[in-house]
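Q: I'm writing up a methods section and want to include an example of the input and output format. Could you take the sequence below and give the corresponding predicted C-alpha cells, formatted cleanly so I can copy it straight into the document?
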Amino acid sequence: MEGPMGRRTRCCATLDAGLASTPTALRDYSATWCSPSPNSDHSLALRADGVAHGSCPAQVLEAFADIDARLLPQHYGTAMSRSPSSGNAQVPLSAEQRAEVARQLNADVLPTMLSRIEAVLLATEGPWYCGDRLTICDIVSFCIVDGMSDGSYVPGVGRSVFEGCPALLEHAECVRALPAVAKWLARAGS
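A: Here is the clean output for your methods example:
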C-alpha cells in the first residue's frame, strides 16, 4: 500500500485528513488520546515541543529521521527514491548495489545509530525518552523499531540490527502495550 507521499508502507490508516502512513497516522491519532495539559485527568501527555520544555530530546527525533533517510535507497531500490513530479523511481540500484546497501545497513549503520538512540533512552529516569511522560519521541521510536524488528519496515533489514539494543525492543513493547496504542493498532489491522 502506498502512503500519501508515494512511499510504500507496511500499514496505512485512513484518517479524516486522508491516507497516512503508520507513523504519521499513529502520531496524529495519539493526539486524540493524549492531553497537552499535565494537569488534566488523562494519564498520558503528548508534547511535540518537549525540547522547549527541556525534557524530550530533539536528537532522538533527528536520529530517527536520519535513519529513515538512510533507509530510502533500500526501500525504493534507487539512489534517489522517487521523482516528486512523476512518482517514478530515479537512479535504480543494481541487485549487487542493493545487497551492499542492505549489508552496510545491517552490519554498521543501523546498529551504531540505534545504540546511540538506546543510550539516550537508558539515560532517562523513567520508562520513556522524556522520563515519566510519553511523548512523540516514544511514538516515533515505536513505529520505526516495531517495523524494523519484524522486518516489515524496509526489505533486507531485520531484527538482527537490535542485537545490542534490547532496551529499544523492550521500549517498543511497552508502547505497544499501552491501551490507546493497542486500540489504534487493532483499528489499523496491525
